[in-house]
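Appendix B. Raw example, untouched.
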Amino acid sequence: MKKLFLTLALAFVGIMSANAQVWLGGGLGAQIEKNYTSISVSPEVGYAINDHWQIALGASYNFEKNKPLVPDLNFQTNNYLSLEPYVRYVATTIGDKFSLFFDLTGDFGLIDANGWAATLRPGIAWMATKHWTAAFRFGFAGYDHGYYGTNNGFFLNCDLATPQIRLYYNF
């Protein structure tokens, strides 16, 4: 594990010293209900290869707390940690501020999520300033091998009511 972090750190320093288009960012999430709480933190670092192709490595930590339906049982807690590398194809730019993209992601569970998944996630990016970008991902389709649930197979999620929102600082 130490070798993995050292390799990632050296790769990051190499990318930064190459005076390339690099970004740091990620997302925060929370869902708080009477019998359920979920909090997530998802940092990532990325690199723009050219105008259409980008690569990134992210990690995600999610804490969940459930109260069972049976009144006598205590809350159940789960901690999930996963690596989330992805390749982004920027399909088109709309004016100077917006672009349409597609992310091909891999989700690899490390703690309490033992499987993996590969997904295709469409989205829209808004370049608010020279250094700040907001990305909105809507829905996803892909293959799950024990990551999102207990069943293996292909899936489609078109829930437009809960987009993923990420903020990035571009160097």
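End of appendix B.
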